[in-house]
Amino acid sequence: MIKLYYDPITVNCRKVLAGFDLVGLEYESVKMDYFGGDHKKPEYVAVNPNEAIPALVDGDFVLWESNAMLQYGADLTDAATVYPSDARARADINRWHLWEASAWFPSCYVYLVENLVKPFTGSEPDPDVLAGEQARFDHLAAILEARVAGQNFIMGDEVTLADIAVAAPMHLHAQVSLPLDPYPEIRAWMSRVEALPCWQKTDVVPLLGL
Asked: Within 10 Å of residue 138's Cβ, how many Cβ atoms?
């Protein structure tokens, strides 16, 4: 059976947990303590030399990168509705996965660190850092706002792996004060994602005591 190393409180682990639930993939859980530094221990670094979680082990096959795990899980379960085999549809989903990892996650992560992680660890948010991120966030949010306008999900009427990936960096949007007020289409789309059973099952708010 597939073995999944994860801490359910992190963005990318929550993404994979929700995605695997969406496609119905079973796996063996190996829970880790991110803040305790489990991802830096030698036995785990042997699995993922990036010192990051999650990581997946399927026999002699080791996979990192959360979006690659989503794609692999969907292929293993023949979840064609959420990760279609049509070349253009799949390329579109892959495009959003790459956008999320390279642009959207780093921007959202600034708010997560400043408004949640720092207070959680006894530090104060840096208003200059938050102010400096605003322009990049607004540029990216405008792209997503335009995409989801007038449709239920990123690819249209039905949820796909694109929604799981792009929503993941926003999963604590209220707690991290993500500046979403100017973006009604994103807020409506996120509400639809949050109504999905796979999203509700992987809610981290109770785990964090927020």
From this structure: 14
CATH code given to domain 87-200: 1.20.1050.10
What's the token pair of residue 39?
Answer: 């991802």
132-165 pLDDT, tens digit each: 999 999 999 999 999 999 999 999 999 999 999 9
Are 104 and 93 in contact by the 8 Å Cβ rule? The answer is no
pLDDT of residue 183: 98
Q: Which CATH superfamily is domain 3-76 in?
A: Glutaredoxin (3.40.30.10)
Task: Return d(Cα 188, Cα 210) in angstroms, integer.
Answer: 23
- Residue 36 has a CB neighbour count (10 Å cut-off) of 10
CB-based contact 18:164 (threshold 8 Å) = yes
Neighbours of 58 (CB within 10 A): 15
pTM over 0.85: yes
